[in-house]
What does this fold into?
Amino acid sequence: MIKEWATVVSWQSGEALLSCDVKASCSSCASRAGCGSRILNKLGPQTTHTLSVACDTPLVAGQKVELGLAEGSLIGSALLVYISPLAGLFLVSALFQALFGTNLAAICGAVLGGVGGFLIARACSLKLSRRESWQPVILSIALPPHAFRVETITSAEGQ
It folds into this structure.
């Protein structure tokens, strides 16, 4: 189970709207200075992801919850997103090369296959996203922001 903390934006009738911060995968790597991924992450927009998760427990805005996502769903969606366009690119490019025998046809086939693979991945992801096993679940709920209070008591001995 992959775990991540999220912040509650709102809760209404058993449905929690959660906000997750985008984190760079290489923020604590030893080779930060020469990492191309780190530079690309700095260039991109620093956004948050908003998602809706079923939750029977009433939640308040600002409350933290721990989300869990099954590894199988993450691996399956990554394979779908990366392999479908790549397979379409190679297969249609090879088909066009065999049919027409020119490099221009192979390039056109590669573009068509890549776009077609992307569209297939998009259609499949919509169907797969409805599976119960692919949905994030709330594993634990932290205290509401107003429930934790710190009081400082000053000592009267010095007066």
